[in-house]
Design a protein that fits this description.
Elements (H helix, E strand, L loop, with lengths): L2 H8 L4 H13 L1 H26 L19 H20 L12 H13 L12 H17 L13 E5 L2 H20 L5 E5 L5 H9 L2 E5 L9 H7 L4 E7 L11 H11 L2 E6 L6 H6 L16 E4 L12 E5 L2 H5 L3 E3 L7 E3 L8 H38 L4 E3 L6 E6 L4 H10 L5 E3 L4 E5 L9 H18 L8 H9 L3 H15 L3
Parallel strand pairs: 2-3, 2-4, 4-5, 5-6
Antiparallel strand pairs: 1-7, 6-7, 8-9, 10-11, 11-13, 12-13
Helix pairs in contact: 1-3, 1-16, 1-17, 2-3, 3-17, 5-13, 6-13, 7-8, 13-15, 14-15
The structure holds pyridoxal-5'-phosphate.
Length: about 500
């Protein structure tokens, strides 16, 4: 979701006033209530204005707050959707968007759509009716495991197993739940803890909240990689899992997974590699001769991995894979009950009924691309990424965070990087604004491997830097927002705003 837009709205608060007011409030609870009410009122009015940009189709296309009495013709429904789609697709198709659509070639999309259509009625919950989906999912898991070090010498790889899930977040949530439940069952741990680098995905915080696992975040080192010594110090008798990313979403750096997983192994703790972003690229980059740090099951301490088929697996959105070193750990993920009057009930993931067609389309993506297809895609992506990295390195005012492969975060000592991003937005780019530290990233996909896209990015970026240098005092855009979000004293005001944003999304 678009946090940028939300943070943009925060500039309407006068930060000095809020900061001063909050200092007073700390000692006088009465004011706390007052300010909170003020902020709520303010955010309501901001959201009112924000609604326009979040709801661009109001008054343009028919809206239905309740069922239409008489059904709209199929032709009309499809026509509406086609018109809306054509407004939205140019941006990602032409390579202006960081991440989001990872393949995007028309032929590939058509093929996935056909695979979906053939299987659209399937539901793997009824495995007797659709054994096809169990076949597709078993093979998706096996192909992913084989790619990520299963069966490699000396690791007992044959026990490596997993499930297909609905996305990276579900893969992560399920693995964290499995570690929590295993630690409770086998080690009697009632108040579990997990340790993750500061850059590990927000899905781990989500798992922490949902499953009552205390989250211990450890800042990354100067190279944006996990800090082994600091993470070692954080281990307690309650630690159930240590996490590392391959690579991290913000800065694209592969964590020190070799050392961390060894630490976990020696202590008898689980280790999860979050390869949601890298699982379907890193193995191929390694084969192409790139310097890829170890991250998969070839490391004996790695006990689970998440890898997103719906990112660089080039499947349609809605699938991911979670893998475990052994079936016993996977059993802690499975749900089963033998007492329900509805019968013996069991399901591998959070959902009951599931869209088998998405798994079928994912299988279709994987087997149609094959090793050659993934190698070829990885090579193209890296070539585009290298052009972009070289281009950024030549811009004196900018620096790249760490030494990434294809997710490239850059900041500036001299310029306000969010003003640079604002200029890029005006040029049509959709980049990711990051903070702590202030930077922006582009996650390179096959869309950026199209002829001329990397060159256009660098040309626009150079123009952006030149513009910001010339106009340091420019107003508006995202820049004041990020400065403010970084120093905004009341974090609950920020999260309240996010609630309001989500509420707005669900308005007709
Ligand atoms: C995308 C991503 C996730 C979460 O995946 P979703 O599919 O969006 O739920 C987790 N970790 C990393 C590193 C990611 O890039």
């Amino acid at each position: 979701m678009d946090i940028n837009t939300v943070e943009q709205q925060l500039q309407r608060f006068n930060p000095r006033m809020v900061a001063a007011a909050l200092r007073v409030i700390k000692s006088i609870p009465y004011f706390k209530k007052k300010i909170k009410a003020m902020i709520l009122k303010e955010s309501a009015s901001i959201m009112g204005e924000l609604e326009g940009s979040l709801k661009p189709y109001r008054g343009v296309f028919p809206a239905y707050a309740a069922l239409p009495e008489k059904g709209v013709s199929r032709a009309e429904v499809l026509s509406i959707m086609r018109r809306i789609k054509s407004r939205e697709e140019a941006k990602w198709k032409n390579g202006f968007v960081s991440g989001a659509v990872y393949h995007g070639d028309a032929g590939h999309i058509d093929f996935l759509n056909q695979a979906y259509a053939i299987n659209s009625q399937s539901n793997p919950l009824h495995s007797d009716v659709w054994p096809s989906i169990a076949k597709y999912e078993a093979e998706i898991v096996s192909m992913t495991a084989a790619m990520l070090g299963a069966g490699s010498a000396g690791t007992g790889g044959d026990g490596i197993c997993g499930t297909v899930t609905s996305g990276g977040t579900e893969s992560i949530l399920l693995a964290m739940k499995a570690y929590r439940d295993r630690a409770r069952e086998e080690r009697g741990i009632r108040r579990p803890e997990m340790i993750a680098p500061s850059t590990a995905h927000a899905a781990f915080d989500k798992a922490s909240q949902y499953f009552n696992i205390r989250m211990i975040r450890i800042p990354v080192d100067g190279n944006s990689r996990s800090d082994v010594a600091a993470m070692r110090k954080a281990v307690t008798r309650r630690t159930v899992v240590i996490v590392g990313s391959a690579p991290s979403f913000p800065h694209g750096m592969v964590d020190t997974i070799g050392e961390l997983s060894e630490l976990a192994r020696r202590k008898g703790i689980g280790f999860h590699t979050d390869a949601c972003l890298g699982g379907f690229i890193l193995p191929w980059l390694e084969r192409l001769g790139y310097d890829v740090p170890a991250f998969d099951f070839r490391l004996p301490g790695v006990t689970s991995i998440s890898a997103d088929t719906h990112k660089y697996g080039y499947a349609a959105k809605g699938t991911s894979v979670v893998l475990y070193r052994d079936p016993e750990l996977r059993h802690y993920q499975f749900y089963k009950t033998s007492e329900w009057p509805g019968g013996l009930y069991f399901s591998p993931t959070f959902a009951g009924s599931r869209p088998g067609a998405l798994s079928a389309a994912c299988w279709a993506s994987m087997v149609s691309l094959g090793e050659r297809g993934y190698l070829d895609a990885a090579e193209k992506i890296m070539r585009a990424a290298e052009k972009i990295k070289k281009g950024i390195e030549k811009i004196q005012e900018l620096h790249i965070l760490g030494d990434p492969l294809w997710v490239i975060a850059f900041g500036s000592e001299k310029l306000d990087i969010y003003r640079v991003m604002d200029f890029m937005t005006r040029k049509g780019w959709s980049l990711n604004g990051l903070h702590r530290p202030s930077c922006v990233h582009i996650c390179v996909t096959l869309r950026h491997a199209l002829p001329g896209v990397a060159e256009r990015f660098i040309k626009d970026l150079k123009a952006a830097v030149a513009h910001v240098k010339k106009n340091p005092g420019e107003k508006g855009g995202m820049a004041p927002v990020y400065g403010m979000a970084a120093t905004f004293p009341d974090r609950t005001a920020v999260t309240d705003m996010l609630d309001a944003y989500l509420d707005t999304l669900y308005k007709v």
